[in-house]
Specification:
By secondary structure, the chain is mostly helical. 71% of the residues lie in helices and 0% in strands.
Length: 95
């Protein structure tokens, strides 16, 4: 009879140890997930910072000033509706 009690105690100890191991693995996984979320947040903040910096550097006024400072001769690469400031030549269309 005592052998049976020892077997039950050993079995319950093994089950308890297994549950503790699963709980520890769950805690490790949650910690890794929290670290990943923190890295993702930092990456998003860095991307947003870069987007703001790009937006500031690509303002038309800033670009025009940089082009003038560098004395570059540039041609427009995008089509936009003609304004009165543009010369009176009609736009060419591909076709």
């Amino acid at each position: 009879m005592t052998l049976r009690y020892l077997a039950v105690v050993a079995l319950l100890s093994a089950v308890g140890a297994g549950l503790l191991g699963l709980r520890q693995q769950e805690l490790n996984d949650k910690h890794a997930m929290a670290e990943s979320h923190a890295r993702m947040k930092e990456a998003r903040e860095h991307i947003k910072d870069l987007q703001v910096r790009i937006a500031k550097m690509t303002r038309p006024e800033a670009l025009n000033e940089a082009i003038e400072r560098a004395e570059l001769q540039v041609e427009p690469i995008s089509r936009r509706p003609a304004t009165e400031e543009d010369n009176d030549e009609p736009e060419q269309q591909d076709g």
